[in-house]
Amino acid sequence: MKIIESKAESAVSYGGLIEKIEILRSTLRWASKLDRPQIQKLLSQCNALRDEVMKLSHKERFVKASSAAKSNRKQTTAQRRKALLDRSFVFEGVFGESQKLLDALEIAEKAAPTDLPVLIDGESGTGKELMAKVIHANGGRAEKAYISVNCGAIPENLIESELFGHKRGAFTGASSDRSGKFESADKGTIFLDEIGELPLPGQVKLLRVLQSNEIQRVGSDKVVDVDTRIVAATNKNLLEMCHQGTFREDLYYRLSVIQVTLPPLRERKDEISLLIEFFSDEAAEKLGRRPIKLSRRLRTFLMSYRYPGNIRELRNMIYRMACLAGDVADYEHLPDTLRADLPVSKEDKEAEMTEMSLSEIKRSASDEAEKQFLEQGLQTTAGKVSELARHIDMNRSHLQTLLKKHGLQSKDYRARS
Ligand SMILES: Nc1ncnc2c1ncn2[C@@H]1O[C@H](COP(=O)(O)OP(=O)(O)O)[C@@H](O)[C@H]1O
Ligand SMILES: [Mg+2]
User: What is the pTM of this model?
Assistant: First the structure.
């Protein structure tokens, strides 16, 4: 009997899928008798087909199927970003313009107004929690509770009571009835972070919530209705966990009706400088200092580093530098663990210690020129700001902002009588 071999890496397409299904059908139709191993093999082919259908539906249903999305391929990422803003999609604080990030945002845009569960996957620090908040903020539940639970941070024996609540006396220490996170998130959204850490008994209960929208507190027979939108996140490969038997397959398929994948920072290298700038400004504001400048070699290093901790790691590094460095940050302000394998000799270090990047030298020279120009103007007009504004054809309030930036005061230039 001919049984098709399933190729995990084969390109997924509807045509290919239908062909595989047809082969499977004719195998079954003409089989006079099947033994157990053959049944097993056919079953595993069915499972593989189901995986492919899921993959296709993730891709097609929420990105390619909509006609708006079809034209996306022709747009630049900047245009796609602007289009999202024009459609009033709120994603404040999410920086970056890679195709993959925009794919993720566009899926989130379509998923947000529905109540469908969303599974966000990506390495640690790629912005999964940020994305969950974006989904909540753009949905019909935005005004209601957003409750975040880190399934990996709660001891295994307490997790069910944390999620579903417990009845008094359900276990030692349960001194009174208590509601769980699901009840707190009623009518709102619950964010289940590190869902791969949820132990199997908790998975069974979660599946039940997804199927029937009801929970049972630990130790109680009473069923409580809940209306909670579920957004889950993981940095694990849940499908692989399903194959190993540590994650329930039925739960996986329920949770991942919509899947949003966030790319690691090393696949969005062109965004690093944008993020550096954003975090430097943010750190400057929080720490009450001028934005940090980077030595050229430090910038080169930051642009090529692999960031196992992704955006979180970059953000922490910039904050660290903003706290420890003077005007210019250099290798010495990197965490010790990174300094250990930096590619420079000692002499280089002395020589380049305070060297700035070309763009920083340019910026500081242009700042200096601007200041001199304004000083001269104030002298010529004897400190009359509106006259100077007219003279140099600049909006008056913009001129005031510039004067403030350079610490120039018009009264210092007024003619003294
Ligand atoms: N695209 C982004 N733009 C700006 N900041 C981001 C972006 N993605 C993540 N961050 C920041 O990086 C840090 C880690 O993000 P988080 O959502 O907690 O990641 P994860 O949940 O995947 O570990 C947070 O401070 C978050 O605000
Ligand atoms: Mg997280």
Answer: 0.69
